[in-house]
Amino acid sequence: MKRYTTYLFDFDYTLADSSKGIVLCFRHVLNLHGYTGITDEEIKRTIGKTLEESFSILTEVTDADTLAAYKKEYVKAADQHMTVNTFLFPETLSVLTQLKKDGARIGIISTKYRYRIMELLSQKLPAQFLDIIVGGEDVKTPKPSPEGLLFAIEHLSVPKEETLYIGDSTVDAETAQAAGVDFMGVLHGATTRSELEAYPHVGIAPDLTLLTE
């Protein structure tokens, strides 16, 4: 694969498996409001979208105030359960370490809150290892808007053609396309290879190791 100077990653289902915590928190809110027929797989299929979008998909609720209330309940549950139920994929640390050793800049662009990402990664990576983290609280328009990705590129002062965005979902693929940067899909999540292949990409791989091969 072509070498880039900057590698920007999605978080959930790309660098880490937080599905256990996500399902637990969604299940908590859904059960509170009587939604008992929703499967874990249906919840996992919404990972990568905003909480409001996910709850709307799962419950068919469209009222903004109701969705905001569900989000607030989710965040409260996540403060207790998310980090302890989130695990980096086996190759994540070695791939990130090798890219950094090779002189690349590394960042994360996610709909997940930045503080929650930092809470986990501060236990796994040296301080200042990542060059930038853009979380859901840092943008006005979430992915697939390119806002967060373009902000990172501008902040790091790197050319788009030297930047690769890596993610697991069609939302990530759309984000890269909208930003005008190359995209690599990783098959850690619930999105299939054929779904990712519908978007421009430089590679689709079972895991992150392709980045250092």
UniProtKB/TrEMBL annotation:
It comes from the Bacteria. InterPro entries: HAD-like_hydrolase_sf, HAD-like_sf, HAD-SF_hydro_IA, HAD_2, HAD_sf, PGP-like_dom2. Its EC number is 3.1.3.18. The keyword Zinc does not apply. It catalyses: 2-phosphoglycolate + H2O = glycolate + phosphate. It holds the Pfam family HAD_2. GO terms for molecular function: hydrolase activity. Keywords: Hydrolase. Pathway: Organic acid metabolism; glycolate biosynthesis; glycolate from 2-phosphoglycolate: step 1/1. SUPFAM superfamilies: HAD-like (SSF56784). It is an enzyme of class 3 (hydrolase). PANTHER family: PHOSPHOGLYCOLATE PHOSPHATASE. Belongs to the HAD-like hydrolase superfamily. CbbY/CbbZ/Gph/YieH family. This is phosphoglycolate phosphatase.
